[in-house]
Design brief:
The protein is an alpha/beta fold and about 240 residues long. Helix content is about 40%, strand content about 20%.
Length: about 240
């Protein structure tokens, strides 16, 4: 696990990015070139959950890059949702203060870096959760990522209403009982993407927002296992 700096495309500075690489082959052979997955944070910054997800992605054989997307407000925000209401209040403050178009530009810069990073095969996907799930949706329309995965993205009904043109394939995981994405919003999302061959959307019955955050209050082992299996197959198909 290491941390690097990536220059922002607008020349305003650079931001930190966590890097986790797959383990070297046990037989001592030179490792094959790897696909890269850019992980997009929840509203809590690059916290323990994002570190764990980075390790999981690396265990699948990909290079994991997790950029600090709150850096324009405050660098290296780390909040933990199980440590009280104050953490949630700070998290919503950072989410509401984010310039999402600049965040997408930072994601694009991370994708570009990932294509050229040592040991990479040139293919890069994005995968995001909550706020990051929304940004993964936006990455599918606003970047050249080879694929994108959105876990319980928020506010997607508004994005679908804009009738976006998808540049790369998108896999969506939607929680049926998501307290932040009510049934009416889910219906609009599903209706808006159902005829698009680049989008696959799955709804997971009976589970709430953040069902795939291991150890969280909404964790659901069955739904998370199914969603994560679909994600793994999707990444292998498009990133290698």
């Amino acid at each position: 696990m290491a941390q690097i700096q990536i220059p922002a495309a607008d020349g305003s500075g650079s931001f930190d990015c966590l890097v986790v690489e797959p383990k070297a082959p046990q037989d001592g052979a030179a490792p094959a070139a790897r696909g890269v997955v850019v992980l997009l944070q929840e509203i809590f910054g690059v916290n323990s959950a994002m570190h764990a997800l980075s390790e999981w992605v690396a265990d699948m054989g990909f290079i994991a890059l997790t950029p600090d997307l709150f850096w324009r407000q405050q660098r290296n925000v780390v909040l933990e949702p199980d440590q009280g209401q104050d953490q949630w209040e700070q998290a919503f403050k950072f989410m509401n203060g984010m310039d999402q178009e600049k965040a997408v530009a930072d994601i694009a810069a991370t994708i570009a870096h990932g294509r050229a990073i040592a040991g990479a095969n040139g293919k890069v996907g994005t995968m995001g959760f909550c706020l990051g799930g929304r940004l993964a949706f936006k990455a599918a329309t606003g970047t050249d990522a080879d694929c994108n995965v959105s876990y319980y993205g928020v506010g997607l009904d508004g994005l679908v209403a804009e009738k976006p043109a998808f540049r790369g394939p998108l896999l969506m995981h939607i929680a049926e009982k998501d307290k932040f994405v009510p049934a009416e919003a889910q219906a609009k999302i599903l209706e808006g993407v159902k005829a698009n061959p680049k989008v696959r959307a799955h709804v997971y019955p009976g589970v709430d927002h953040a069902f795939a955050r291991m150890g969280g209050h909404s964790w659901d082992g069955r739904a998370a296992t199914i969603a994560n299996g679909r994600t793994a197959e999707f990444l292998v198909k498009y990133v290698g």
